[in-house]
TrEMBL record:
<keyword id="KW-0472">Membrane</keyword>
<dbReference type="Pfam" id="PF07331">
    <property type="entry name" value="TctB"/>
</dbReference>
<dbReference type="InterPro" id="IPR009936">
    <property type="entry name" value="DUF1468"/>
</dbReference>
<feature type="domain" description="DUF1468">
    <location>
        <begin position="10"/>
        <end position="146"/>
    </location>
</feature>
<feature type="transmembrane region" description="Helical">
    <location>
        <begin position="120"/>
        <end position="138"/>
    </location>
</feature>
<feature type="transmembrane region" description="Helical">
    <location>
        <begin position="42"/>
        <end position="60"/>
    </location>
</feature>
<protein>
    <submittedName>
        <fullName>Tripartite tricarboxylate transporter TctB family protein</fullName>
    </submittedName>
</protein>
<keyword id="KW-0812">Transmembrane</keyword>
<feature type="transmembrane region" description="Helical">
    <location>
        <begin position="81"/>
        <end position="108"/>
    </location>
</feature>
<feature type="transmembrane region" description="Helical">
    <location>
        <begin position="7"/>
        <end position="30"/>
    </location>
</feature>
<keyword id="KW-1133">Transmembrane helix</keyword>
Length: 150
């Protein structure tokens, strides 16, 4: 698959910035009392407006000035990266739905297997480390992570 990077990224991030600009009023509340200072929405609006302007610049550079970098995306070469990305997404879903421990116990062994690790000690060590991080956050940092059952 051949991808025109300027045009593709300009369109994707342009659409994303427009969607996020429309969502800002629903996500960032304005304080009840006006303090005379800038609104909490100013930073998101500035960042998203800058992103939209840069996206428009990329589209103009691609279509008007014909400056484009074409990247060949080969699924066979990128398979490992896509698999890791999918496992990270799976971890996020499992963590929200079933808890951090379930996510660690399911995803880390799959990730190790996908990356070619076959030694049982590494699996045990990684799972113990993942569970240890959970208790570190709970007991030492006093930060709650989703437990069993989300």
């Amino acid at each position: 698959m051949r991808i025109k990077t300027n045009l593709t990224s300009g369109i994707i991030f342009g659409v994303l910035s427009i969607i996020l600009l429309l969502l800002v009023p629903a996500q960032v509340a304005i304080p009840t009392f006006d303090t005379g200072g800038p609104s909490p929405r100013i930073i998101p609006y500035l960042v998203l407006s800058g992103m939209l302007l840069c996206s428009i610049g990329l589209i103009v550079e691609s279509l008007v000035f014909k400056r484009e970098k074409v990247v060949v995306f080969d699924f066979k070469v990128e398979k490992a990266g896509l698999l890791v990305l999918g496992l990270v997404l799976l971890f996020g879903i499992l963590m929200v739905q079933f808890g951090y421990i379930v996510g660690v116990v399911v995803v880390l062994p799959l990730l190790l297997h996908a990356l070619g690790e076959r030694k049982p000690f590494i699996y045990i060590f990684t799972l113990a480390g993942g569970i240890g991080v959970y208790y570190l956050f709970i007991e030492i940092f006093n930060i709650s992570l989703p437990a069993f059952g989300g």
